[in-house]
């Protein structure tokens, strides 16, 4: 029988607090933020799919559960703002309304790019300044360079650590255990 909703909420909160109090890196941190009900989601995830996440960083980013697992891992490293920025840029590039373009760009800039932004991403001064200049006439490509830098930072830095992390290795063993 499913746990009453309030108990489930507390467990999620404990997991999040656990991430803050000690750099937890466990399979439970991943299941706590899955887009669907964890057990149902993981029954749908095959070992083959999870193994393919190691093929390339873009394969990982293009898979719903891969993205969730990577996000859970980044939370343990306190660097999820990189992924959140990358996702915000992906969403921004789909903006069709010219009216919304400037306000969306401003929001992304203030949240991730500006010096001392609440979720400031780790980019060099030149990229930050170029992006600031792009903001004078925002276009769908105004974050391209910053997004590219953040993508390669995650790919070179966080992604290899993710593939060695307990979150990923536990996840693989869970999918393999179901097959046996």
From TrEMBL:
Compartments in which it is found: Cell membrane; Cell projection, Dendrite; Nucleus; Perikaryon
Highest taxon in the source lineage: Eukaryota
Key word Lipid biosynthesis present: no
Gene Ontology cellular-component annotations: dendrite; nucleus; perikaryon; plasma membrane
Entry membrane topology: Peripheral membrane protein
Gene Ontology biological process terms, A to Z: negative regulation of signal transduction
Keywords, comma-separated and alphabetical: Cell membrane, Cell projection, Membrane, Nucleus, Signal transduction inhibitor
InterPro entries membership: RGS, RGS_RGS8, RGS_sf, RGS_subdom1/3, RGS_subdomain_2
Predominant subcellular localization, coarse grouping: membrane
Membrane recorded as keyword: yes
Residues annotated as domain RGS: 56-172
A Pfam cross-reference name: RGS
Name of the protein: Regulator of G-protein signaling 8
Annotated organism of origin: Bucorvus abyssinicus (Northern ground-hornbill)
